[in-house]
Write a structure and sequence with these properties.
The protein is α/β, with parallel strands linked by helices. Helix content is about 35%, strand content about 20%. It has a 5-stranded parallel beta sheet. Strand 3, helix 3 (about 80-85) and strand 4 (about 100) form a beta-alpha-beta unit. Helix 1 runs parallel beside helix 2. The protein is globular, with a radius of gyration of 13 Å.
Amino acid sequence: MPGKYVVTLTHAKDNTDKATVAFVVANAAVASDKETVVFLSIEAVRLSQKGFADSIHEEGFSPLKELMANFAKAGGKIYVCSPCFKKRALNENNLVDGAVIVGGAKLVEFQGSGCPGISY
C-alpha cells in the first residue's frame, strides 16, 4: 500500500523502550512500502548523533543502532528538529545515515493532509 507514515519520537536514553519500539514500527512502515519519516524532537534528537545509540539494546529487540541503520538503508528518512538540536548544541557533522536537520514546516509539508502516524 503506497502512502506516507510518520513516527514521532521524543525519547532516547531517557526511555530506551520507546526509542526502540519507535524504530521497530518505522521499519515495519517502510517495509510496507510507505514513504516513512521518523521525526526526532526533544531528547530524541540525541539519536541523530553517530555512536549515541550504540549502547541501547532492549531485551527482545534488535539493538537500536541496527534498527536505525536498517531504516536508513530501506530509504527511511530521519527528520531532526532544528530548535531541539540547537538547544542541545549537537554536532551537524556527526549525523547518522538518513538524518537531516529540519524545521517544523518540513514535517508539516511531509504530512500534508491525512498522513497517518504514531508518537512515542
